[in-house]
Amino acid sequence: MTAMMTLGLFAFSLPTAAYQELQRRTSWRHGRTPRVGARAASQFQGPDEDTITVSGLIAPGAIGKLQALQDLRDMGDEGLAWPLVTGYGENLGAWKIDSVDETQTIFMDDGRPRKADFTVTLHRIDDADARHPSAPAPARAS
User: Fold this and answer.
1) CA-based angle 38:47:54, to the nearest 5?
2) Whole-Å CA distances, 104 to 15, 19, 54, 113
3) What are the pLDDT digits (tens) for 45-104?
4) Are 98 and 51 in contact (CB under 8 A)?
5) pLDDT tier at 132, thresholds 50, 70, 90
6) All structural domains of the chain with their residue ranges
7) What are phi and psi of 128, to 5 degrees?
């Protein structure tokens, strides 16, 4: 099975939950001090938030399975950070699951959805105490 990306042992893929969009937002902190007659002085204070949001759809019986979303919720319930690796092998560090959103539509007569749109939001973690034991250590500046 080819994976688009793995989070711990969970593989985002066509048989599980394939995403159609990936957004990443990385920000940095800058302390600002007001000055009279000039723009505020700014000092770089380091990295801030790093989040990834993936969204896609599951069509049970054709693409993916609803159990994949429950698997992600179960991982989120653990409160641990997991290693995130792209399908082409880039290690992105340790990430926690912030949220799993699901919208089910087009229902069968027994209430099972034929389609479920999903969004998963991940948050990068550098704190060694918060990482999952199998997560890689963050890179350190020398």
Assistant:
1) 120
2) 18, 16, 17, 6
3) 999 999 999 999 999 989 999 999 999 999 999 999 999 999 999 999 999 999 999 999
4) yes
5) low
6) 5-26+50-130
7) -60, -30
Structure token pair of residue 131: 């990482």
Q: Cα(20)–Cα(2) distance, rounded to whole angstroms? A: 15
Tokens of 18: 């394939």
Contact 130, 81 (CB under 8 A): yes
Tokens 């792209």, residue?
86
Residue 33 burial (C-beta neighbours within 10 Å; 0-12, 13-18, 19+)? exposed
pLDDT at residue 42, rounded to an integer:
94
Q: Which amino acid is at 85?
A: V
| % of the chain at pLDDT higher than 90 | 86
Alpha-carbon radius of gyration of the chain = 19
